[in-house]
């Protein structure tokens, strides 16, 4: 007879991706220009935004 699992598989849960929060914004002026930023740590232009740190308040 097969063994029935009675609780969560903790090794499976430990390997799951944790919740992440991030946001970006597209800002345009009246002339239609879009704001982009060039981070110092990479060689690309992108929209402003970022990620929330663990335990960071949403306010």
UniProtKB/TrEMBL annotation:
Gene3D superfamilies: Nucleoside Triphosphate Pyrophosphohydrolase. This is NUDIX domain-containing protein. It comes from Plantactinospora siamensis. The lineage of its organism: Bacteria, Bacillati, Actinomycetota, Actinomycetes, Micromonosporales.
